[in-house]
Amino acid sequence: MNMFGAFSAKAPNRMFAALLLGAIAGIAYAGIIPLVLAALADPGAFPGVRDNKAYVLGWEISNFGFAASFLGLCVLILLARTASQVILIRLSLDVSTDMRRRLYERVSSAPIAELEKVGMPRLVAAITSDVPMVVAGARLLPDLFTNMVTLVGMLGYLLYLNAPVFWFVMGCIGFGVVTYQVPALIARRYLVRARNHLDGLHESIRGLVHGAKELKLNDARREDYFRRVLAEAEHRVRDDGKTGQTVMRIAQNYGDLITFFVIGATAFVFVNYHAISRPELVGVIMALLYVTGPIAILLNFIPQIMMARIALRKLNALFARIPEEAVARDVAPRRDWQAMRFEGVGYRYLDDAGEAGFEIGPLDLEIRKGEITFIVGGNGSGKSTLAKLVTMHYQRLDGEVRFDDEVLGPANIAGFRQGVSAIFSDYFLFDRVLGREGAELKDEVDSHLVALGLAGKVEYRDGRFTTLALSDGQKRRLALVAAYLEDAELYLFDEWAADQDPAFKAFFYNAILPGLKERGKAVVVISHDDRYFDVADQLVVMEDGRITDRNLSGATLARARQVASQQHDHGRRVAPGPRPVDATVA
Ligand SMILES: Nc1ncnc2c1ncn2[C@@H]1O[C@H](COP(=O)(O)OP(=O)(O)OP(=O)(O)O)[C@@H](O)[C@H]1O
Predict the structure, then answer these.
(1) How much distance in Å is there from the Cα of 384 to the middle of ligand 1?
(2) Positions of the region Disordered (predicted)?
């Protein structure tokens, strides 16, 4: 995608109209000086010559024909330029929305593993910095076109006035353009670096916002973060930006100077070597003075266009970085299965350089409907990675996943994935129930809010939850309400109960999970709550990326309890003796 392409792909007719109007304005601009010079050369233009005069609103107008043409050109410039700019501004707003929408669509259709690698800061930088920069650059196109047409027109006029002057000017412009490239290339290098540092700055800002509580508690820590992380990131963006912009301005002024140099060289040097009449010289100098305007504008645009191209390259790289997941889309949810089977399934994380990181597998596992499967294991043993394979956010790299006898692959994965509802440990709570509407929804939500002890805390009104300002445990319960309403075939809970109080923990393990099981759902729970391991039909023990045990034998239970008891750093183990579950809750 190039800048022009971004606009012309969206609305070719509007883009064409804007450029055409820009060209008309350019031609009209280029016509002004020849017209004035022609009028001045006409005897009717001078005082005392009474021919060809007219009176308009009491004003005496000499050389009326030229004056009327001059006015006509001015009006044409005004109308054509305004229309061209208005069309482009409106189009650019549509294009910005369009580009952002494309990015949203790409993000939502990208493989989760790629999104995790790209990270939020790069996406935010792309949406907030790159898209507006590209659009701002593309918006200059008609003005660029207008000024280029004016320049070409004026150079043509120069050729008509005096061919040697024209070739002299062309030589000077050629020299200027070539030598201009040196500072322009240096500037570009620094501007690209400044833009690359922007991703790091966004990452640092994320730390500032998300780590605000931690930073506030300790001045030394905050100082350190400001000095070594934020300030450094800011300085990198600022320093390279400053150097890039400075060199760019030098290049621009150098370009400006070249045009004046041409005028000086023509007036003071060229005339000594070529025969040129005084009126001819006046015409040439006027044309050259007039040309400085479009040249200055073109030079002024260059930094912005350069920034836009850098941003566009970043956007294109991001699009290439987050490819669309190669799976069939718009397929109906698949509910017609009884068991999900992992046969020798393996997965490994790859870093940016393609180096393999943590690896799980080969895994053999069966998750059946109407059963509860617990996954237990120490920190970093691969439980969440396995969970993402179960929810099909990650696709196996080795082995095979089957739903009954059907092998999971690109053609059917989207269908099976739509039958999954999951609450991950880093879940996101939306302020509404997505994908469902209707009057009966509110009644259902209300009854779940009551059951989960959230009535009075939050309501479902006008299609959204009235507040999300809830405690961690309450937020998780609200996420559970939304998950429950999805009526999925497979439910996955990654440490859902970790921050629930004993009563809700008991409610979750003793009422919600068995309830889902009774409804014939496949239930997968990552848990450290060894008190409730007996709720499981199947207990899967993970150690170092492998399943080391997978049944409910006494030995597995003992092993699972031992592994769970090694979870020192969670600190959220269930307190002994849950208080009786409230009748409304149970
Ligand atoms: N997005 C990622 N990119 C690269 N490596 C990752 C990523 N996520 C996890 N890992 C690696 O995979 C290993 C297993 O992580 P995983 O989250 O599956 O463990 P876990 O058993 O769920 O741990 P915990 O109990 O702490 O949540 C980790 O040691 C980590 O190094």
Answers:
(1) 7
(2) 561-586
Domain contains 400: no
The answer on 433 and 287 residing in a single domain is no
pLDDT, tens only, 401-448: 999 999 999 999 999 999 999 999 888 889 888 887 777 888 889 988
Minimum-distance ligand 1 atom for the alpha carbon of 385: 18
566 close to ligand 1 (CB < 6 Angstrom): no
**Do 272 and 376 belong to one domain?**
no
Domain around 169 = 3-200+237-321
DSSP codes, 484-519 = HHT--SEEEEESGGGGS-HHHHHHIIIIIHHHHHHT
d(CA 81, CA 74): 10
Instruction: Using the mean position of ligand 1's atoms as its centre, give its distance from the Cα of residue 474 in Å.
Output: 26
Q: How many domains does the chain have?
A: 2
Nearest atom in ligand 1 to the alpha carbon of residue 388 is: 18
Distance of CA 256 to the CA centre of its chain: 36
Domain-embedded: residue 410: no
Mutate to test the pocket of ligand 1, among 385, 540, 546, 567 (most ligand atoms within 8 A of CB): 385
Is ligand 1 within 6 A of the CB of residue 554?
Answer: no
Q: Tell me: do 314 and 374 sit in the same domain.
A: no
Is there a domain that residue 508 lies in? Answer: yes
Tens of pLDDT, residues 241-289: 999 999 988 888 888 788 788 888 888 888 888 878 888 888 888 888 8
Tell me, yes or no, whether 404 lies in a domain: no
What is the rounded distance in angstroms from the CA atom of residue 374 to the CA atom of residue 490?
13
> Which of 350, 376, 381 is the pocket-test mutation for ligand 1 (most atoms within 8 Å of CB)?
381
User: Do 303 and 429 reside in the same domain of the chain?
Assistant: no
| Whole-prediction pTM | 0.73
What is the position in ligand 1's atom list of the atom closest to the CA of 567? 25
